[in-house]
Amino acid sequence: MLYWLAEFSESFIAFNLFRYITVRAGAAFFTALIFGFVFGKPLINYLRRRQGKGQPIREDGPESHLLTKKGTPTMGGLLILSALTFSTLLWARLDNVYVWLVLGVTLGFGAIGFADDYAKVKKSNTKGVSGKIRMALGLLIALIAALVAMYSHPADLQGQLALPVFKTALINLGWFFVPFAMLVIVGSANAVNLTDGLDGLAIMPVMIAAGTLGVIAYAVGRVDFTSYLDVHYVPGTGELLIFTAALAGGGLGFLWYNAPPAAVFMGDTGSLALGGALGAIAVATKHEIVLAIVGGLFVVEALSVIIQVAYFKRTGRRVFLMAPIHHHFEKKGWAEPQIVIRFWIISLVLALIGLATLKIR
After folding, report:
1. pLDDT per residue over 158-214, tens digit each?
2. CA torsion angle for 187, 191, 194, 198 (degrees, to 10)?
3. Integer distance in angstroms from the first to the last C-alpha of the chain?
4. Residue 1, Cα to own-chain centre: how many angstroms?
5. What is the pLDDT of residue 169?
6. What is the residue-averaged pLDDT of the chain?
7. Residue 361 located in a structural domain
8. Are 189 and 272 in contact (CB under 8 A)?
9. Residues of the chain with pLDDT under 50
């Protein structure tokens, strides 16, 4: 929105700063951060009054959670989404299709998560919206996003899958790109959702992944950078740096209240939305495979559940003491902060590896 002030730079030269994506990204970060600090406490107090007993805790989960997390309100993702949306609309170019694509996916999955959280709180149990309904709605949102992305990409990239490291190598998926993109978006949303099980566990890896994808989006949106790095040029994606900066600012504002012991949980409202956002950014920038590296922690969390369920159905035995895998380490006696910080470190290392794919050719 404020980008248009650059049109008056001849009258007031300082307005020329709004032309620069990096300047607006910095402003978006601090806007979202301040938003989180200002509205965080009032929102938590409101959620606590409305929810009473807070988020229902799984009875089959770690025993300590029934004592330490009982009564904590959920839907804290509303704080992140509000800060993110306000800041993005304020600082991003609103004529950019990729901004609306990613924002639409984020809010769409956020709405699914909100309905699920609301149903859980209202029923006072861990069963919210039917899994089939959640999946169907998620696939519908992902379908629309995949089609928009496909037709928004340059003609030579439409329906193509870009491979990291192998320079300009492309695999022509044709119309199969649509279901592939849907899988990336829905898979990312659910993987982040599965990771959100400990205080602060999901939000920091999400911010790290978003920051990494933001750098990638900025790079592939500049023809001089893509020429130097020998990656595919996707004009317009640089504007997504503002979205990811706002996500990081809103995420930090939320983490202030979500740090152990958490005053609020993000709930499915936040985890599904943020996971969907990561998937949408990867699809928009043609870096779907790199997302699997940058978000490797989320991949492992999701795989641990898939492996556990499949193996148990086949043999009646478990591979892990409990899934997702962060609960496995809890069962082994690791302290919650120990698990969280070590997973953060892993996320940071994976992000650096993902960034390295830009230059390793």
Report:
1. 999 999 888 778 999 999 999 999 999 999 999 999 999 899 999 999 999 999 999
2. -160
3. 38
4. 23
5. 83
6. 91
7. no
8. yes
9. 66
Q: What percentage of the chain's residues is helix, strand, coil (to nearest 5)?
A: 70, 0, 25
In a domain, 182, yes or no: yes
69 belongs to a structural domain = yes
Residue 9 is predicted with a pLDDT of: 61
Place of tokens 């998560």: 113
Identity of residue 327: H
Specify if 128 maps to a domain: yes
Q: How many domains does the chain have?
A: 1
Task: Quote the domain boundaries for residue 298.
Answer: 2-356
- Per DSSP, the residues of 282-342 read HHHTT-HHHHHHHTHHHHHHHHHHHHHHHHHHHHS--SSSSSSHHHHHHHTT--HHHHHHH
Which token pair is 121? 């709180």
The predicted structure's pLDDT at residue 7: 64
pLDDT at 66: 46
Q: How far is CA 329 from CA 62, 102, 320, in A?
A: 11, 34, 9
Query: What distances in angstroms separate CA 320 from CA 128, 299, 317, one per listed residue?
Result: 26, 16, 9
